[in-house]
Amino acid sequence: MYRGSGFFDREPGDFFLLKQICALAFSQVVYFGDSMRSDMFPASSYGKWETVMIVEELEGEGVQRNIAAKPAEPPLEPLGKKVKYEDQGMKTPSAASEQWGSYFVDAHRSESGEDEVPKLTWCSYSIHTYSTVAIPSVEAIADLPLDYKFPRFSPDKPTTTGYFPRPPDSLLKMYGTVP
């Protein structure tokens, strides 16, 4: 590590060395990532850091990417430019899958076999377990004040708490709170 260089690649040893060099008695790390396996789990479990998971699938479930953007604002890209998947009739990568269903909630048959019971997916469970907050994109929080207090995931709070700016539609539907 050199003065003026960046801190990357979630190396807790380097972070603790930096704390010693700077004589920091108390410091906090907020780690942003989009992979449960390589970002959230290690940062939360081994680094004991606060974690913000970027979950693009939130966009496919009704959560706006940038809450500060107004519908009347001009698009960020030129009108003539089209994304590759638009010309091919494909859905956006974050759209909910008709074959696989929601990223957050899955339907299981009840023991009687007659009803489908909604249950959290492994992805949803892992987001709640290893993330402090889940957002659709960094742009979703870019215009917020630095002292903004985010709702946080916690075992003693409802499963819908911790998503910003709001939970995905499938979770809201599962708990009967669809807007």
UniProtKB/TrEMBL annotation:
Keyword annotations from UniProtKB, A to Z: Hydrolase, Magnesium, Metal-binding
GO molecular function terms attached to this record: 5'-nucleotidase activity; metal ion binding
UniProt keyword 4Fe-4S, yes or no: no
Family, per entry: Belongs to the 5'(3')-deoxyribonucleotidase family.
UniProt-recorded name of the protein: 5'-nucleotidase domain-containing protein 1-like
